[in-house]
Amino acid sequence: MARGEEGTATVPKVYGVATVLVCLEEAGAAYEVVPLDMAAREQEAPHHRARNPLGKIPAFEDGDLMLFESRAIARYVLRKYKPDLLGGGDPKRAATVDAWVEAEAHQFHPPASHILRQVVILPMIGGARDQRVVDENVGRLRAVLDAYDARLAKHRYLAGGEEEASLADLAHVGVMLMLVGTEYGRRVVEERANVKAWWDRVALVDAEVGIRSTQSSR
């Protein structure tokens, strides 16, 4: 998948994943998605480690700049193309965006990723689900989303914006798309009316991107 007109200057190259692609789309930036053969573990090959030294995805090239880690890439993209989604020049709003991006990284993502590993990834590779791990992390996720629900009772988006999603919201896309595809994730979201309404709004952002065809975990 590529965006942008033929004959234009070299565009950024993206190796995975949903969050980065949504930010590029929201920024209106031209880009090229470069597929990797994950089954052949191409992400661990030396040529890919030049982009991501950890041998994982995502990776991002913009001229001579090589970046890895989805949140770092997303911040770079938005700083360059659409800084309003990072809070623009308002230090208070920018700090609020940062706070909720950190909440996604340290509070939402850990239990969500544990659920996905048990429910989605292990069955794909012939592993057995540990229901104790699932139940424990569903409980943790419920507590996190209770806090989200209270916040979203007052604001349409996590960082307080009423008209437009910010990185605080977009940072959730990669994991949330997979999570709501599971019975556990769908239930904990649908049990919280404000979270459900928020996710319905955020999901519209990625609908035009064809994100599901390029979705990994993050």
TrEMBL record:
Name of the protein this chain belongs to: glutathione transferase
Organism per entry: Eleusine coracana subsp. coracana
Domain GST N-terminal span(s) in chain numbering: 20-85
Family per record: Belongs to the GST superfamily. Phi family.
Signal peptide extent: none
GO molecular function terms attached to this record: glutathione binding; glutathione transferase activity
Any single biological process term in GO: response to herbicide
One GO CC term on file: cytoplasm
Origin: domain of life: Eukaryota
EC number: 2.5.1.18
